[in-house]
């Protein structure tokens, strides 16, 4: 996955807030990467409503 690609949130790995749970199934654009200790790389996804949050790669799928 690369910055600028469209992705869909396909699952959530951890317990998260209701606000993030609402993003399940939504599409957004990868805006940045973050190295996460012990878990690999996280991706900042920005959604159409201009909100954004970090996800792990296995929580996302490419959206065409």
From TrEMBL:
InterPro entries associated with the record:
Tsr0524-like
Please report the name of this protein according to its UniProt entry: DUF2862 domain-containing protein
UniProt source species: Phormidesmis priestleyi ULC007
């Amino acid at each position: 996955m690369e910055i600028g690609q469209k992705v869909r949130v396909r699952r959530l790995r951890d317990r998260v807030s209701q606000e993030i749970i609402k993003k399940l199934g939504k599409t957004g654009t990868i805006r940045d990467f973050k190295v996460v200790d012990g878990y690999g790389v996280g991706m900042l996804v920005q959604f159409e409503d201009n909100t954004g949050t970090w996800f792990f790669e296995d929580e996302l799928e490419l959206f065409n």
